[in-house]
Amino acid sequence: MNYRASLYELLGGDEGIRRLVEAFYPKVQKDPLIGPLFPDNIEPVMEKQYMFLSQFFGGPSLFSDQHGHPMMRARHMPFPITHEKADAWLACMNEALIEVGVEHELRLFVIERLSGPAHHFVNTD
Length: 125
Ligand code: HEM
Prior knowledge:
By secondary structure, the protein is mainly α. The protein has a single domain (7-120), classed as Globins (Globin-like, Orthogonal Bundle), CATH 1.10.490. Helix content is 65%, strand content 0%. It contains seven helices and no strands. It has helices at 7-10, 13-30, 43-56, 62-67, 72-76, 83-99, 104-120. Helix 6 (83-99) runs antiparallel to helix 7. The radius of gyration is 14 Å and the shape is globular. The N and C termini lie far apart (38 Å). The relative contact order is 0.16.
C-alpha cells in the first residue's frame, strides 16, 4: 500500500467515493436496526455523505464548503444511536467496501478509521 497517498486517492477519488456511497445506502436502508432512522428519499443524505467522506478521507472540503463546520456528533443527536447501531453502520460500510472491490488491507484500515467517529456518535444506551 502507498502510505503517502490519502485514503481519498486510495479509494479512487471522486468516482470511488461516489461508488462507495451508492453501494452503502441500499445496505443501510435494508438494515433492520438503522434503516428505519433514514428518510425514504435517501438522495440528499447520499449527497451529503459523498461530500463528507471526500473531505474526511483527505479530498476536497466539499462538505464544509457547503454546510459549514461538520459537527457530526451534534448532527446525529436527533437520532438515538447505540453501540449496536454504530456496529450495524460499520457492517454496512464494510459490505459496501467489499462490493466496490476495495482490497482487504485498505478495507480494514478504512473501517478502523471510521470506527472512532461511529462509536463517538453513540448518544443513548
Ligand atoms: C454510528 C452509526 C450512525 C448512524 C445510526 C447514523 C445515522 C444517520 C442519520 C439517521 C442521519 C440523518 C439522515 C437525514 O438527513 O434524515 C445521518 C446523517 C449523516 N451521517 Fe450518519 N450515522 C451514523 C454514523 C455516521 C458516521 C460514522 C459518519 C461519517 C464518518 C456519518 C456521516 C453522516 C453525514 C455526513 C450525515 C449528513 C449530515 C447532515 O445532514 O448534514 N454518520 N446519519
